[in-house]
Amino acid sequence: MNTLETIEIDVSVELGAAVLPIHHLLRMGRGAVIELDAFENDAMRIYANNTLIAKGEVQVDEGQLNVVVTEKVIKPA
């Protein structure tokens, strides 16, 4: 089990995504809004090393943002 404790993975949580031209991105300033392809009740996507592994939702607990796993994503064999 000690070997597993030394392995690191990159975990990321995606709220949504957007495609826009680079010149729009370069013109954005503070307070700019980027429209995402997700709605407020959509599940967030959770990735480990760029592989989708689960879906979840955001919860706030005493000012701390947390992501709660609501569904595991099973890859077909």
Automatic annotation (TrEMBL):
Asked if the keyword Cell membrane belongs to this entry, the reply reads yes
The entry's keywords: Cell membrane, Cell projection, Chemotaxis, Cilium, Flagellar rotation, Flagellum, Membrane
Q: Name one GO biological process term.
A: bacterial-type flagellum-dependent cell motility
The record lists the membrane-crossing segments as none
Compartments in which it is found = Cell membrane
Domain Flagellar motor switch protein FliN-like C-terminal, first and last residues per copy: 3-73
Gene Ontology terms for molecular function: cytoskeletal motor activity
How is this protein positioned relative to the membrane? Answer: Peripheral membrane protein
Q: Which GO terms describe its cellular component?
A: bacterial-type flagellum basal body; plasma membrane
Pfam families documented for this protein: FliMN_C
Q: What family does the entry list? A: Belongs to the FliN/MopA/SpaO family.
What this protein is called in its record is Flagellar motor switch protein FliN
